[in-house]
Amino acid sequence: MLASLISSNALAKEAQKLKKPSPAPVKKEQKRSPQNEPPFQAFLVIEANTGMVLESANPNLKHPLASVTKLMTACIVMEKLESGANQLTDIISISSAASKMGGSQVYLKQGESFTLEELMKAIMIASGNDAAYAVAEHISGTVEAFVEEMNKKAKSLGMNDSEFHSVHGLPPAPGQSQDISSCNDLMLLSRELLKYPKLLEWTAIQVEPFRNGTFIMRNHNKIIAKLPGTDGFKTGYYEKAGFNVVATARKDGLRLIVAVLGSPSARIRDSIAIEKFKNHMAKYKMVTLAQKGQNIGEAVFLPDGETQSLQTVAASDFSYPVLREKMEAVKKEIRLPREVAGGVEAGQKMGDVVFMLDNETLGTIDLISPAHIRKVGIFKKFFRLIGLE
């Protein structure tokens, strides 16, 4: 009987084991998929000359820049070149710190020497983090001092959404801050960069040899190869930043700038930018409304002048992006006096012309005298009055 009881208890324990619920299966963490994410966090399209906004979404969103940071690095360098503080022929010796940069690089070695122009190409074409570090050290003495200049420049441009903490845009180490900006701010920076043709010369290069041809640099901005007329600027990526780009393209005198921030893939980012370029270049035409030196308005009477009739001219060029279907609707209002007493100086403002579309002012330019016209003396004026001249 004792054996039977022991046997019965053993069977009960075994049954309890069988009744225990089996552990739930471990769910595998789903990887981020571009199909499950929005195509961008923010974008902005502007016409470069006027700054006119053509289309936008979240233009003031502060977003990590990644290597787009290097656009401000380039801005500081171009400013130094323009002032004469530095030359493209400057020789830069690579430091130990510069040689240890990760991410995109041209594999600089400590003790190597390159010209400033060679390293600027490495930054703008190959997105070389090591090159950016070496250039910053050369320009400002330390990277920290260079970053201070970046933030001062951002402030002077009105880039109120921006903070720079590095010269290259690499992901920040623990305890460090990200380089951030907005599409609006990036447009302010881009329009500043367009002042420097040399920079566009570099950013338009698709393939360039480096280190005597032993290393081939390929432009990270693939839009250049995909869309004719594209000649800038810069892409950027790390995981938290997503895929960013600020690009510029020109067609038939119309230059647009497109910024796309936070796309889930390079393909999606580029396709959005290209679509925006094509769409707005098809819609708009850059219309030349005035050319410097062009005769505009009726002649002004100069009763006291050696010449009594003055044809005013435009003081400057003026062009504006206009929707193609509204090109004929642009109107102008010329504001000139009928006569002006005394003589007139060359370049003297005589009036102005206002260009309008749908009751909105597109712009105003001065109308000036193209020449100096002296005031006649009292005797000559008298002879005019009695008809002897």
How do the helices and strands line up, and which of them pair or pack?
Layout: H1 2-19, E1 42-47, E2 53-57, E3 63-64, H2 70-83, E4 91-93, H3 96-99, E5 113-115, H4 116-124, H5 129-140, H6 143-156, E6 180-181, H7 183-193, H8 197-203, E7 207-210, E8 215-218, H9 223-226, E9 230-238, E10 242-251, E11 254-263, H10 266-283, E12 284-290, E13 300-301, E14 309-310, E15 313-314, E16 318-323, E17 331-335, E18 349-357, E19 360-368, H11 378-385
Antiparallel strand pairs: 1-2, 1-11, 3-6, 4-5, 7-8, 9-10, 10-11, 12-16, 13-14, 15-19, 17-18, 18-19
Summarize this structure as a short list of keywords or feature phrases.
disordered N terminus; 389 residues; alpha+beta; Beta-lactamase; 5-stranded antiparallel β-sheet; 11 helices; 26% strand; 2 domains; Peptidoglycan synthesis regulatory factor (PBP3), Domain 2
